[in-house]
Amino acid sequence: MGEEEEEMEEHKVAVEEEEVQAQVYPAPLHSHEEVVRDKLAFMESLRRFHSSMSTKFMIPVIGGRELDLHLLYVEVTQRGGLAKVIEEKKWREVIAAFKFPPTTTSASFVLRRYYLSLLHHYEQVYYFRAQGGLIPPAGETIDRCCHLFLCVRSFCERNGMRRALQTRC
């Protein structure tokens, strides 16, 4: 890579970093108590939140049913927020509120993933009253590593590669 290309790449990275740092949380439309009490206010404020953040918003489907994002938000914030639920290993309690059919596997992983993508930043504004720059989810890197490990483990199990699973890092 030539000197000019290196300079252009460094400038591109610097601009991208500035854009991320420049993004700030919008002001909340309601109090945390209001969005917990009123599902319609929650859904409206969540849609507007994603629109103002220019992030994709869709309601996921799990086990053939739309995921109740309001229930997910309420269950997680009742336990102190996402970081605390993860730290204190309370995902089973959160999952229990959903009454998923027994055929729904990996519920905690799926709920956690949707919470991170759809509700984490909303939680920062509405539950923790964060203002200013975005707050990254705690343990995001660990989540990606765990996901990769689970994919590799699943592949090895499906392909009869038990020895690979016994190898230690």
UniProtKB/TrEMBL annotation:
Keywords annotated in UniProt: DNA-binding, Nucleus, Transcription, Transcription regulation
SMART domains the record matches: ARID, BRIGHT
Q: Which Pfam families match?
A: ARID
Tell me the domain of life.
Eukaryota
GO terms for molecular function, please?
DNA binding
Q: Where is the ARID domain?
A: 36-127
Q: Which CDD domains match?
A: ARID_HMGB9-like
Q: Which Gene3D superfamilies match?
A: ARID DNA-binding domain (1.10.150.60)
Describe its function. Answer: Binds preferentially DNA with A/T-rich content.
The protein's name in its UniProt record: ARID domain-containing protein
